[in-house]
Amino acid sequence: MLEIKDVMYYYKSQKDKVILNHISYCFEPGKMYAVLGTSGSGKTTLLSLLAGLDVPVEGEIRMDGANILQKGLNRHRKENISLVFQNYNLIDYLTPVENVKLGGKEDAMGLLRSMGLDETQSRRNVMQLSGGQQQRVAIARALASNAPVLLADEPTGNLDEDTANEIISIFSELAHEKNKCVIMVTHSKELAQKADVVLTLRKGTVAAVEKIALDGAG
Amino acid sequence: MHTSMNVFGLSIRSVLRKRAKTILFLLIIFITSLFIFAGWACKSASIQTQNESKQAIGASFRLEINEANRSQRVAELSKQIGRGTNGSAEGYHQKQLESGDWMTWTDNSFDTLLMDDIKKIAEADGIESYNVTTANTVVNPVNFERIEDKDVDQSYDQKGVSLRGNLSMEMDFDVQKGNIEVNEGRMITPEDVDVCVISRELADLNGLKVGDVLEFNNWKERETSKVYQAEVVGVYDSINKIMPIMYGDSYRSENIIFTDLSFPEKPEGNEGSPLYQYATFVVENVDEYETVKKRIQAVDIGWERYDFLDNTGMSDTMTENFGELEKMSSLILILVCVSGVIIICLVSLFWLKSRVHEIGIYISLGRTKCGIIMQMLLEGILVGCAAFLLAAAVSPIVSQGVVGSLVDDQIRRQEEQEQMEAGMVAHSLLEDDQAKVVGVSVEISGNVILLSGISVLGIIIIAIAGSCIFIMIQKPKEILSRMS
Q1: How would you classify residue B181: left for phi > 0, otherwise alpha for psi between -120 and 50, otherwise beta?
Q2: Which of B121, B108, B106 is nearest to B279 (CA)?
Q3: Does residue B375 contact residue B7 with C-beta atoms inside 8 Å?
Q4: Quick check: is B85 in a domain?
Q5: Which of A77, A147, B142, B274 has the fewest CB atoms within 10 Å, i.e. is most exposed?
Q6: Under an 8 A CB cutoff, do B4 and A107 touch?
């Protein structure tokens, strides 16, 4: 489905410092992936390339077998990718409903309800919600586009343990029940263990791929 | 059906919910709009003033007798008749009195403008109409009383009234200047014969009305000279007193009687020998003034006999001064537009930098950069519309103030220029009053609103599009990395 093929990436100003060094991997629908790695290991760069926010220096990113550059990166982001960030990234002057509508034409209120937000919460300013609620809004917005791939960059970084677990459960549900391909970048080994597959990046290469039994992921 | 947020929906929410930003932006565009309004209003007002000046002052020519040539002709005819000889030639007369002194005089035929010459000029291409005015002719009022100042010794006065004949009374310079208005009856037309228009004061004193007949004869031979009749066709009211050309009640404003062109010579005792003092030629198209002037100068007449006044000095001065006003208003517009673009661009840039987070979110959601810039433009235009409407409401006052001060400045310059040119530029009777500009009216017309609207819209689009360049040149990843 979403495939990275022999991808190499470095900053043009620092050609000697390779961020991703000829890595390849194929992400499949219906699975939740966790990308682990220390700071500077290339996790966020990998996510940017998958999201079409940047292009590799060498190699290519493929979606359903086609290079994402063929359709255009904007279209790739709009049709194939949903992004969830650590700091939620909601538009501060919009309500939760309006923020979700930014994501796409899906039933915004229904999505928010499914994320546990009631009518009142959904109509007030988004900045008046708690961190956990804001992240739920961000996930609802990601789902509004009905994109097959959900990319999450440290989605639980700003949340307490209980809320973080709830969010991970939602991701897991999305992968297993809605057949989404969920790719989550995290530095928490504990959370990573709840994914179906854990990719560990080290010095720009995939150092390990750990597959966890589906039974344990639910 | 569920709908996603469109650009307009986002723009209007941003404008309404980010109030501090909106109010500040609104103020900036409001002030810019006011100056734009003033600039366009000023430009419009200055052009209007220039045209009016041309029409009032410059769009006519006047023919008069040249005094130097007159003296030369007198000298030549005197020489032709011979020193110490009684005789007459071409309207010039010399006669030795019993006392031994010599008396010389000229008659109307010597001093008049020649009708043939006037008609030749009037036939030139570009002349719309013309008028001929006789010299003020003092005659004796036979069947009515004149206005007299009882406190003034009348022994040196001719005890008459003044007749002023016109081919077309509506073109008389006192009518043109607005000094008099015919509010009862009508003015005299070229077809009229033996008619007159009298002053309100004279009518009231004698109980005269339109249709009455006045009688006149030669003031020097009151008892014996032939009496001529003229029917009263109108009564004029004096808005400003007509300036008398000589001292005495015969020439006072109320005693001036307008007649048809050929009447004054009759009671004066010179029937068939008129004294035409001025001929005025109105130019059809103001813009062809100089071309028409050249055509007239090419007409084959004895030009040495005449002064041909074209008001060039004054009309050039007016054009120059109000041309300066137009230049100044253009300069204001350019300055306001450039500074408006720079200020709005900088403010917009500042806000865009504070909205990197928002822009990053849009990019991550797959929105194109053009779509994001479109939203920023739409926000600017929405605020701009509100600011423009507010500015339009108060612009008449501000524009009047700005234009008024500019015009005052121009008038002051004009007066300084006139003082400098005093005695150097020939002035005609028409110039003095009409050349003065006492103010200017500023109208915020539909055209001014349209031009101002286009200018403000242009400024907003250029400024915001300019400030959005930084969005265009940055990669999505760079924007997203800045937002975190």
Answers
A1: beta
A2: B121
A3: yes
A4: no
A5: B142
A6: no
Domain A2-90+147-217 has CATH 3.40.30.10: no
> B374 and chain A: CB distance < 8 Å anywhere?
no
pLDDT in the model for residue A154: 85
- The secondary element (H helix, E strand) that includes residue A36 is strand A32-37
Q: Are residues B307 and B380 in the same domain?
A: no
* pLDDT tens, residue by residue, B132-161: 999 999 999 999 999 988 887 777 888 899
B231 and B267 inside one domain: yes
DSSP bridge partners of B196:
B232, B259
Answer yes or no: do A102 and B365 touch at CB < 8 A: yes
Q: Do B365 and A94 touch (CB under 8 A)?
A: no
Q: Tell me which residue in A51, A54, A108 faces B2 most closely, judged by beta carbons.
A: A108
Range of the domain at B391: 7-58+317-483
pLDDT at A161 over 90: no
Token representation of residue B317: 């001065």
The answer to whether the Cα torsion of A39, A40, A43, A45 is positive or negative is positive
At B153 the pLDDT is 77
B377 and B275 in one domain?
A: no
* Domain C-terminal end among B311, B328, B354: B311
Residue B106 inside a domain? The answer is no
* Residue A57 tokens, joined: 């220096």
- The answer to whether residues B355 and B400 belong to one domain is yes
Contacts of B481 (CB under 8 A, 6+ apart): none
The residue ranking higher by pLDDT, B221 or B353, is B221
From B204, B481, B213, select the one nearest B357 (Cα to Cα): B481
How many whole angstroms separate alpha carbon B208 and alpha carbon B235? 9
Q: Quick check: B160 and B141 in contact, CB under 8 A?
A: yes
Angle, CA B429 vertex, CA B424 and CA B434 arms, to 5°: 95
pTM score:
0.57
| Residue B364 near residue A51 (C-beta atoms within 8 A) | yes
Instruction: Select from B212, B202, B149 the least CA-distant residue to B180.
Output: B202
Q: Could you tell me if A127 and A92 are in contact, meaning their C-beta atoms sit under 8 angstroms apart?
A: yes
Q: N- to C-terminal Cα distance for chain B?
A: 35
Look up the ipTM and state it: 0.82
Chosen domain end from B263, B292, B311: B311
Q: What is the dihedral of CA A103, A106, A107, A109, to 10 degrees?
A: -20
pLDDT at residue B436 greater than cutoff 80: no
Rg (CA), chain A: 17
Which residue bears the tokens 């791929």?
A209
In chain B, positions 17-76, which contact chain A (CB-CB < 8 Å)? 17-18
Which of B3, B4, B355, B478 to substitute to test the interface with A, most A CBs within 10 Å? B4
**CB distance from A181 to chain B under 8 Å?**
no
SS3 content of chain A, % helix, strand, coil (to 5): 40, 30, 35
Report residue A38 as tokens.
């220390």
B239 and B373 belong to one structural domain: no
Q: Cβ of A68 under 8 Å from any chain B Cβ?
A: no
